[in-house]
Write a structure and sequence with these properties.
By secondary structure, the chain is an alpha+beta fold. Helix content is about 45%, strand content about 25%.
Length: about 700
């Protein structure tokens, strides 16, 4: 047989599809003892691998041949190759196969392969594109090729004569059973679908002299079966529906040689045959397809053995599928756990919505999308975040549950995968201009059985339709997204209630209860670290009169403006609270009384210069404030002592004419205020009462005159 024909026939084996093949023939050298192998034929799939393999194998080709058994070697940056020595028609040969690599890449060894002064990284994309295999898989391929070569080691004759001799030597009875049993044992060692099919087909070809074999296996969606030529046929033979599959595996046809009639030809037009024998592939009650042998006489005994082999192959395929599914589930679980950690770090709802939409679009390579949430009434939906469209415009859209595609998903709670919006009877609508493709996915966001929103994605990057696998992946992520949305909303609601419990609803300042807690914390810290701390009490002058005369709305506005003035006059570390009515309290950690007096004056002057609505109608014709200042440790060491001292100072400011600041005066005894400071407070109280009575009389007379 010509060398090229030998390689061509070997290259047709499915297991060698990704390998480069080179045949070496041993020639006598000029020196009697010098014998070396020379390349006599080659079929190259990958030039770089072939070059590396040549340097590795050619130097010691004699040694490999003398060993007399197939050799599998790892060399270069992680490449695999095999060498098979054999003798044919009195000549000695070595067949070298290369072109695959192991899963990991050895950068240090790869660096030596870089050309023109480059580095290993320049070769990385190239090497990564190569097919990967394990040492065991390459070893299995080498053994099967060796067996195949054995068929050629027959006396020189015509191809037809060789085939006839091969058929005459076909193992029968115990020999065939033994060959099938060995194949079943070998199946336990393979780990891929390709290797499983290759092992079985090789046995059928060598033991039962089959010339053409095809296998039908289920597609990812489980609704169709792809037919692949494994031996003597084109690789892609078409797709069969579940119904069409019955033409091959129906009880009256399965495991029987039948004519290749019109229905079968219509199902697989790429196959030209006379007869066909199909063996169903079933495992654990699940239909996995079939294996078909064309134009080969299958005896009853052979059919029984092939059926046994098909059953073992189906079991192995099912096991491989289960292992792959488990690996996929584990990988998905790990990925979801990683995404969970990422989403748990996000504090705000807007950032969460943005992250969810970005992750979802990355998972299925979508370029447009949106998140819609259902309102509390369960009637309307609002777009809370978008991808590929303007969010402000999207938020203005009027959306209702039950209306449109997303509304239908929100109502039914069922995910929707649409390949073509114009042809799908469930939607049947014209495609919108902003969408580049007609395929979309809508996933309900659900908490248990309650739908809280919808996740919409469209326009895959490659503009192809979304797949069932995309739908499954997105559904898994949508469950996580729903939990994260609920968690964020619950947390923000809890924070809102907590904020309401410690803040004044009118001014937004802290309330009196929170002030006591924080002031006690700051006092403890000041004691431990030996720091000053000052308290300022601020009270608006004649506020009751202002409130009565100008109304409660104006009074509320004045309180809010005063709160803003106080906050703007303080540092971020300072604490300000509404103590009650028109009275405010500011706590200045690490601040002495002298420093606090400067801050107090800034607050007083800002309030005095602020124009409040209707203030010209009150006695002083403007709204002002009186302030009392007390400091730790000289004026007190507890919450009550400091509040008491600053309160006394405040009333002294009132007594002295208002719109002023008074600092607490201390005695030498335990830092408490002098008792004579209390007298101005009592006098001020009496004076205030008299002035209030006079003002009430003035107000009543004024109202009567206006009436």
């Amino acid at each position: 047989m010509p060398f090229g024909d030998l390689l061509t026939e070997l290259k047709e084996l499915p297991m060698l599809a990704r390998y480069s093949l080179t045949l070496y023939c041993k020639r006598n050298g000029t020196v009697a003892t010098a014998r070396r192998f020379e390349s006599c034929a080659t079929v190259i799939e990958d030039a770089l691998c072939r070059e590396v393999s040549r340097h590795f194998f050619e130097e010691d080709m004699d040694v490999f041949f003398e060993e007399g058994t197939p050799s599998v070697c790892r060399y270069g940056g992680g490449f695999f190759g095999f060498l098979i020595p054999f003798t044919l028609s009195g000549e000695e040969f070595c067949l070298v196969g290369d072109g695959v690599r192991e899963e990991s890449i050895d950068l240090w060894q790869l660096a030596s392969l870089a050309r023109n002064g480059g580095d290993a990284f320049s070769l990385l994309p190239y090497v990564e594109s190569l097919c990967t295999a394990s040492y065991e898989e390459v070893e299995e391929v080498a053994e099967q090729v060796r067996r195949r070569i054995e068929l050629y080691r027959l006396p020189a004759a015509s191809h037809q004569e060789q085939a006839a001799v091969a058929r005459s030597q076909e193992p029968v009875g115990d020999e065939a059973l033994h060959a099938v049993s060995q194949t079943v044992e070998r199946l336990d060692k393979v780990g891929t679908v390709t290797a499983c099919l290759a092992v079985c087909c090789e046995t059928i070809v060598t033991v039962f002299q089959a010339t053409r074999i095809a296998v039908a296996l289920p597609d990812a969606d489980g609704k169709s079966f792809s037919v692949t030529g494994m031996w003597g046929l084109p690789e892609e033979l078409g797709t069969l529906s579940v119904e069409t599959l019955q033409l091959f595996v129906a009880p009256d046809r399965a495991k029987k040689t039948v004519l290749w009639d019109g229905k079968l030809r219509a199902a697989l037009p790429e196959v030209r045959a006379t007869v066909c024998t199909a063996f169903p592939l079933k495992a654990h009650g699940e239909r996995l397809g079939f294996m078909a042998i064309f134009d080969t006489e299958i005896t009853p005994n052979a059919a029984l053995l092939i059926s046994m082999l098909a059953g073992a192959m189906a079991g192995k395929l099912s096991s491989i599928d289960r292992d792959a599914a488990r690996c996929k589930e584990n990988a998905l679980s790990e990925r979801l756990m990683s995404l969970t950690d990422t989403l748990l770090q996000i504090d705000s709802k807007d950032l969460l919505y943005e992250s969810i939409l970005k992750i979802a679009s990355d998972l299925i390579e979508a370029t447009q999308g949106s998140i819609m949430l259902i309102d509390k009434d369960g009637v309307a939906m609002q777009i809370v975040f978008t991808l590929g469209m303007t969010l402000n415009i999207a938020r203005c859209l009027q959306l209702k549950v039950g209306k449109g595609i997303a509304g239908m998903v929100a109502k039914t709670g069922q995910p929707l995968l649409v390949n073509d919006v114009e042809k799908d009877s469930r939607v049947a609508m014209a495609n919108r201009l902003r969408f580049k493709s007609k395929s979309l996915i809508c996933i309900p966001l659900k908490l248990k059985d309650k739908v809280i929103g919808v996740l919409n994605l469209s326009d895959k990057k490659n503009l192809r339709p979304f797949t069932h696998a995309d739908l499954q992946l997105l559904t898994s992520f949508a469950n996580l997204a729903s939990l994260m949305i609920e968690r964020t909303e619950v947390r923000e609601e809890s924070e809102r209630f907590e904020q309401l419990s410690v803040t004044d609803p009118l001014t937004g300042l802290y309330n009196r209860r929170f002030l006591k807690s924080r002031l006690e914390e700051e006092l403890n810290r000041s004691m431990r670290q030996g720091l000053n701390l000052t308290v300022i009490f601020i009270d608006l002058d004649f506020f009751k009169s202002y409130n009565d005369l100008c109304g409660h709305l104006a009074g509320d506005e004045a309180l809010k403006l005063t709160a803003d003035i106080i906050k703007e006059s303080l540092r971020e570390m300072d604490i300000v609270a509404r103590y009650g009515g028109e009275e405010f309290c500011a706590v200045l950690p690490g601040t002495s009384k002298g420093e606090a007096m400067i801050v107090a004056e800034r607050i007083r002057s800002e309030i005095e210069n602020k124009r409040f609505r209707g203030e010209s109608d009150i006695p002083l014709r403007r709204l002002t404030a009186s302030l009392g200042v007390a400091s730790f440790p000289e004026d007190g060491r507890t919450f009550n002592d400091l509040v008491h001292a600053s309160d006394i100072a405040l009333y002294e400011a009132k007594a002295r004419g208002r719109n002023r600041i008074v600092a607490a005066r201390t005695s030498t005894q335990q830092g408490e205020p002098k008792h004579d400071v209390l007298e101005p407070r009592r006098e001020a109280t009496q004076s205030n009462l008299a002035k209030t009575l006079d003002f009430n009389a003035y107000l009543e007379a004024s109202l009567q005159s206006k009436g």
